[in-house]
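Ticket #4471: complex job returned nothing on first submit. Input attached below:
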Amino acid sequence: MTVTVAQLKRGQKGIIKEFADDILPIKLLELGCLPGNEIELVQVAPLNDPIYINVNGSHIAIRRETALLIELDVFEDKVVV
Amino acid sequence: MSKQINVALIGNPNTGKTSVFNQLTGLNQKVGNYPGITVEKKEGICKLARGVKAHILDLPGTYSLNTTSLDESVAVELLLNKNDKDHPDVAIVISDVENLKRNLLLFTQIKDLKIPVILVINMADRMSRKGISIDITLLEEKLDTKIALVSTRKGTGIDRLKELIADYKNLSTAPNVDTTVIAPEYFDKLRTTFPKQDLYKLWLVITQDVNFMPIEKKLIKDTSSFATKSSSELKRLQQKETILRYQFINGILKETYKVDLTAAKGFRATLDKILTHKVFGYLIFFIILLTIFQAIYDWSSYPMDFIDELFASASEWVKNTLPPGMFTDLLAEGILAGIGGIVIFIPQIAFLFLFISLLEESGYMSRVVFLMDRIMRPFGLSGKSVVPLISGTACAIPAIMATRTIESWKERLITILVTPFTTCSARLPIYLIIIALIIPEGRILGLGYQALTLMMLYLIGFGAAILSAMVLNKVLNIKSRTFFVIEMPNYKLPMLKNVAYTVWEKTKSFVLGAGKIILAISIILWFLGSNGYSEEFNDAEAIVTERVQSEGFSNFNQSAIADDLRSYTKALNDSVSSGVYDISALAINDSLEQKKATLSETALQQEISSYKLENSYIGKLGKGIEPIVKPLGYDWKIGIAVLTSFAAREVFVGTLATIYSVGSDQEETIKHRMAAEVNPETQRPLFNLASGISLLLFYAFAMQCMSTLAIVKRETNSWKWPVSQLVFMSVFAYLIALIAYQILK
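Support reply: We reran it on our side without changes. The output follows.
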């Protein structure tokens, strides 16, 4: 099963996998969503959407539909309480 | 040489760009719009050493030169178009200390356009706290530029920046990154087709509309000849370019930028946890809303009352001081009243923008958007629509101005179109007086019927806003490709200077922008109300005087005079019996006669002005529209009030006061007068449950506010939206009021 940003738990981190061309809006790339960069899930909004991530030092919130597009290698399973 | 240096400030949102702008220009700034679009244009003058001046332009915040919104395309257009009068001699990229990497993406793009560029690293005061150290000299060398380390909070580094601006001719214009490596063959082809053009500039022009609507390609006439790549191929290349640039930047930062991750990080995380918590988050937001609501609704009533009185007495003064005549009337009743109608909104607008800019500066606003986005989405709105909708309960004008933060044009437009449904404070006087007339005072479960009715009206307003948003979301076919992403900036203590500038600017732009239109319509209304073509109008004084002599005053005035006299007599007798006055019965009688004469004179004047109004242009108009308003249960007098209150809802009560010749705006008197009004056909009170509910619903839905129309015109830059808003809301209000009256009567 592929893991995407949408499946991360709070405090969990992952590394962005190579993704298919022009899947993500250019704006996300500019904000640092590039293959090889680390993503941390900081917060999830009360209704489970949007989600708040820290990628490459940028703190941004995106909607779940966008998060589903970003595939990850999860390397840290530690959940920060 | 007297030529000014053209400077463009450019940078990501939330980097303190505006603070730098304020530091450079002080109050020498002006805010306008770019021609033809509603993107805000901020410019100012900065004095440099040796009498040189710099013209500073604050470009809209952008993350890169790959445009995805109107704001960004403004920035790119300006950088690309050498013929634009504002084309910068030097660009200043403003970055904050923490997000340097991301900001350098934009920096390298501008550098590659061969425009001289200075890098400002702002918020230098946070470096040690965040455990960041930067080797500035090495970074300058690697980026081939000059860097100013600035702290706008402490005011340091601005002098160095000014020196760098003055010295801009010595900046290197060599590019940082060779973009052609992402697709060598493609760029070769471009080079041979357009040998005279700069390749990177060409590339930016070609890719402008890949993510956004087409912008004018002023630089190159024939774009079809290099449409050898499909838009998805171009998009892919853009992504490659971004990756390439980040490789370059990462390489440089590895050597020059050190961050100690163990340094304080906890503050932000803790605050985030509380402010976006599923219970406390909403609770805190609710409390903040209450405070804002309270401020706009309650605190601002003091300055508003003051302004109201000030203008009333100014108009009184003009009337008493200047020789009577057309010009004096125009000045006192048209122009001064018109200006007063604009100025009275200033406290509410100032308060609202005070809070909004505090919330934005502190970083809290992003958290609200985060909390509310999912809830608003089914209605075609975004998390960013929350603030305008809430502020609409005070006044739709500042609320519509506050929609500027919404990037998606469709979501923004829907927000603008539905905001006037929320119950603004101008509806309140009408609601209060009509509810008091038609709703009994009883209670149910400890809640008054009247209070419940008022609450229902607020709910109806919100309901109408949400429902019409849903409908508009289905109906409007606007391609809006902006997808939702919002930066969650670090929490900061707001800088008072920035807050003050924002409040000043927004207030000023309201007064000057919407003010002109309000003033014009006020003057027209005044003219129509105080002029007439008929003999009745011209001879009003004689006709009314004669009528009063033969038939006496109207019933209402008769009983009002009697009441006044009774209480006056009582007061006099009380004073005499308690020994305050010692006067003879004859003197008392004289005094009473005098009082009666004064009261009669006032009553006469009131009846004359009432008669005049009835026969003025607007009175004729009222009679003319009577057939239209009759099915709603209104007579021609209410019809006139509905017409004049097109200018602003609060005019309704004032107009009725003039027509019923009560002459004072005191609510009680008008209420009594209205209660006594009888429908000549049904012989029942004119203001009964049916016509009252019909009026309440009419005002709940109708777009009776030209200030709002003016601001919608300004914000959407077209008459199409305010006009359709006006037509739709008026027709809707009419139909609902009609149905309500016909069912209830």
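Chain B has a mean pLDDT of 82. Closing as resolved unless it happens again.
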